[in-house]
Amino acid sequence: LTKIPAIWIIHTLSVHANQTFIRREAADFWLRNLLKYAGEIQKGIIGLKNLCKGQSTMRITIEKNVLLEGVQRVQNVVDKKNTIPVLSNVLFESDTPTNLLNLTATNLEVGISTKLPITESTEGSITIPAQKIFEILRELPDNVVTLVVDENNWITLECANANFRLAGLPKTDFPELPLFSSQDVIGFPQPMLKDMITKTSFA
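^ that's the sequence the OP posted. Answer follows.
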């Protein structure tokens, strides 16, 4: 042991100390991130469990008036002739990271999409008959609405003491709206556009 250079011993101890420090820093980093995203991890685990059971993971909690306004906004372009069943529906898509609900409706000539703030959700999508859900929402009290979709595309709608069951259709049947480049978009106030259309629609 006395023949081992002292400088080598010091160097070895220093390397081990640095490695221990690095490992500790790495552990602290992962622990901080684990705690930060614990809620999202838990939602993901619940979603996987439900998926293994054959259940949908989609669940939305939203204010009734917010949802009613959104459905009323998009249902004007819903296909009233009902030639293609899914065109009579509104597409509901929940985005958990942004806590937004995207509503989309189209008649293959005109499409409209709007985003609504939601209180709580899990990722998922479903199409719901526009006229039916609009009539239900219109009669509900001003309270929180919860939408739950099961594995057979049945939607359970709950609000206060009211409970409804609606048959939906999967997103795969719904046509995608075209995407437009942001550089080709012109923005101006809605009243101005409305006034322009009113003044020229007679022609």
